[in-house]
Design brief:
The structure holds 2 protein chains of 2 kinds.
Chain A (H helix, E strand, L loop, with lengths): L7 H14 L7 H24 L3 E4 L9
Chain B lengths: L11 H15 L3 E13 L3 E7 L4 E7 L12 E10 L5 E10 L2 H17 L17 E6 L4 H13 L4 E6 L7 H13 L7 E6 L4 H4 L5 H8 L5 E5 L7 H5 L2 E3 L2 H8 L3 H13 L1 H48 L1 H6 L4 E3 L7 E5 L4 E5 L7
Parallel strand pairs in B: 3-5, 6-7, 6-8, 8-9, 9-10
Antiparallel strand pairs in B: 1-2, 1-4, 2-3, 4-5, 11-12, 12-13
Helix pairs in contact in B: 3-8, 4-6
Classes of the chains: A mainly alpha, B alpha/beta.
């Protein structure tokens, strides 16, 4: 099954969770480097997504100059 | 052969009908500016007033629901109307719309409506809804030819991406603008899946240009929108009733764009800062571990050193004892050592620190 691609919001939430881990009781030096790499990779992804995403502007066809 | 016009004889009703047809042909729609006098509302439905200037006055008639702004005597207005001769032979204007004209009248009308809507609680802070931080779909109502709209689109494109923006093109000034904007508000509110935010924008202009946004029905339509509203009309100092009733007020269309989406440059900077701040935390944790380890090692080392020192002290004590027991030490204190059999006539050897002597035992007495 295809995995649904993550949105920027998903990635930012994941990054926040990863960053919070460093201040939590779960923090351990043994896992810290892996978690850091994970955060670094998410940051790169977020930047790439933000720079590549374009807005979709759509002028609605409905006319508003008179009652239908 | 038809009689010439001068020879025609009309009934009164026919003449009134012909005059009205002529008026309708010549002036199907007329706009007249003047001052309101003798303003009154009958039966809560019918509005009567005169519109006048220095040397003339015309009767006007309209219905209450056609009044989009509060009117009172002395106010300068522009009426859009059809001229008409009534069946009683009175000339009057059947007013389709009326709007204040001139800065004083606009201000007066604005203040009257503001007070009325405020008393109904339409501007209350408790009514204000929050906007989503990063909306995925927004609806915009504006004129797509307006500079304010172009500014808005440019800024949201510069700041953020991935947003679906549906734009309803309407007039944003003039008599038709309020109704067009109301229809657009209804259009978005009636959609099966409604947008997350409804943005209404218009750039700067004169008080008259912006007066469309002080229309009572428009203000009420914004207030009753199911979709949270963001209104940015005019420049920083302009205040419209549409601004006041909106969930969020933007000072300009550009400001509306800044409010509606975050700035990706700032987000990227913040994300990078978040990640870079992790390295010092890791180094700090490593330093703390190092310090803890050093304490443990120092403790262990101190125990080992203490143990060795204790052993060395024991050895030193033993050495002292052994030294005291050394015969040479005793001889040095003046004692002598005697070797041989203790019996009369036997030869014995006597050792002092300096000499070794031989002697014969001459007497043995028990102590």
């Amino acid at each position: 099954m295809l995995q649904k691609s993550k949105t920027i919001q998903d990635k930012m939430a994941e990054l926040t969770k990863t960053v919070d881990w460093f201040d939590s009781d779960d923090f351990s030096i043994e896992l810290a480097i892996d978690k850091f790499k994970e955060a670094e990779s998410l940051a790169v992804d977020i930047e790439k997504d933000l720079l590549s995403l374009k807005n979709e502007i759509n002028i609605v066809k409905q006319k508003f100059d008179s009652e239908k | 052969m038809a009689k010439s016009q001068s020879q025609l004889i009309f009934s009164v009703s026919d003449f009134i009908a012909v005059v009205n047809q002529t008026l309708d042909y010549a002036y199907p729609f007329v706009e007249i500016e003047g001052e309101v006098a003798s303003f009154k509302i009958n039966q809560g439905k019918f509005v009567f007033f005169d519109i006048k200037d220095k040397s003339g006055s015309i009767n006007c008639f309209m219905t209450v629901w056609q009044m989009r702004v509060p009117i009172e005597d002395g106010m300068k207005v522009v009426v859009s109307a059809n001229p008409k001769l009534t069946q009683w032979g009175k000339f009057s204007l059947t007013v389709k719309s009326i709007r204040p004209s001139g800065e004083g009248a606009l201000k007066k009308s604005f203040e009257l409506l503001k007070a009325k809507l405020d008393s109904e609680g339409l501007f209350a802070v408790e009514r204000k809804r929050r906007l989503p931080i990063t909306p995925a779909r927004i609806a915009v109502i504006s004129s797509i030819q307006a500079a304010g709209y172009a500014d808005f689109i440019k800024i949201i494109n510069d700041r953020w991406g991935g947003v679906k923006v549906d734009v309803a093109h309407t007039q944003v000034q003039g008599a038709d603008a309020p109704d067009q904007i109301i229809r657009a508000i209804n259009y978005f509110n009636q959609q099966e899946i409604i947008p997350e935010v409804l943005v209404i924008i218009r750039g700067g202009g004169s008080a008259d240009d912006l007066s469309a946004f002080n229309d009572e029905l428009l203000v009420r339509a914004i207030a009753s929108s199911r979709i949270p509203t963001l209104v940015g009309v005019g420049h920083e100092n302009d205040e419209s009733l549409a601004d006041l009733v909106a969930d969020i007020r933007a000072s300009t269309p550009s400001n509306a764009a800044q409010i509606i989406v975050p700035d990706k440059t700032e987000i990227i900077r913040a994300v990078k800062y978040q990640v870079s701040s992790l390295l010092p935390r890791i180094l700090q944790a490593i330093n703390q571990k190092e310090q803890a380890l050093e304490l443990i090692l120092n403790g262990a080392m101190n125990k080992v050193v203490d143990s060795i020192n204790n052993k060395l002290s024991d050895v030193k004590n033993l050495k002292n004892i052994l030294s005291q027991l050394n015969p040479s030490t005793i001889l040095a204190r003046g004692y002598a050592m005697l070797r041989g059999e203790i019996k009369l006539g036997s030869m014995i050897e006597i050792e002092t620190i300096k000499y070794i002597m031989k002697a014969e035992v001459n007497d043995v007495t028990k102590k």
